[in-house]
Each structure stands twice: as structure tokens, then as C-alpha cells.
Amino acid sequence: MPIIEVTVIPVGTDTTSLSGYVAEMQRLLIEAGDSIRYQLTPMSTILEGDLVVLLNVLRRLHESPFAAGANRVCTTIKIDDRRDRPSSMEQKMRSVAEKLTPAP
Questions:
Q1: Is 4 exposed, middle or buried (0-12, 13-18, 19+ CB in 10 A)?
Q2: pTM for this predicted structure
Q3: Could you give the 3-state DSSP secondary structure of residue 3?
């Protein structure tokens, strides 16, 4: 299952604060319902789900700051689409944690 990291940065706004833009984008993710899973981090948002659905959500996230008055938007996207076996956000974190556990 694809996992996507996205950072959307509004440029040309009246303030240096971005939390209002981030909150609106989180509302869009909530509206997506169970079709995707997501995790907000301090610097980006991680998405998981069907690639076609995720790409549509990414388009909406990118457009959101324009609708809120931004004059320019810079969006960075990383896609991890592993197809040789199932993958998830939790599985990736478990894999790293297992490697941190000291050997007996």
C-alpha cells in the first residue's frame, strides 16, 4: 500500500503562521473518511491508502491554500509504493524498532 509524505507550504500570505492552513488541510483529510489513513507530524503529513484516492487527496491539499487566499503554494511529495509485500506506516516503524532491540 502506498505511503506518501506531503508538505504544503503557502507563500505570499499576510502572516508567517501556517497553522490555519494546516488545520484546513486536516479538515480535508477528515472529510476523506476511511478511504485513507493519515498522521500529522510537526513538519508534514503522512498518508496511506489506494494510490488513485491519495493522488486526488493530494490535489485537494495543494489547492486548499489557494482557496484560503495564498498567492503561491509549494508542495513536496514523497511516495513509497512497495509492491513486493504488504507495507504500512506501523509496519515500517516496527521494522526499525526491531532493529534497535539489542541482541541477547
A1: buried
A2: 0.85
A3: strand
